[in-house]
Amino acid sequence: MTDTTIGTCAGTEGLVIDEALWARLREAANAAAARAYAPYSKYHVGAAALVNDGRIVTGCNVENAGLGVTLCAECGLISDLVNGGGGRLVAFLCVNGEGDIISPCGRCRQILFEHGGTSLVLTMPQGVMTMNEVLPGAFGPSDLDSM
What we know:
alpha+beta; six-stranded mixed β-sheet; two-stranded antiparallel sheet; 5 helices; 8 strands; globular
């Protein structure tokens, strides 16, 4: 597990990931969870992340009567990232409707890896971890370069 205070991250133009930033991300994730559309499961999820240019992007889960087409909060967050001009995710967390830190599912870890890489730091129920710890040996864009 990585220390809670990460310090200045490479490629982030001096952004510091500290307790104050985690608090801002948690506040943004809680606000997103409150806006979730979860009439079937009643399980609200909100996600927030810091982008390498200093923006905070968010997402919430959006359920659908055809449960297989439900959108995870992380999908909304990535849409917010891309729609806002792109960039690389630096720090991420997600919460349930009660504000508890939760883990992204395997599918969402893959989606986050695509836009943050191995150095993305995530607050997990176990503490702060790098994406490399959360999704070791991940398959990504560089694997397609050898095709």
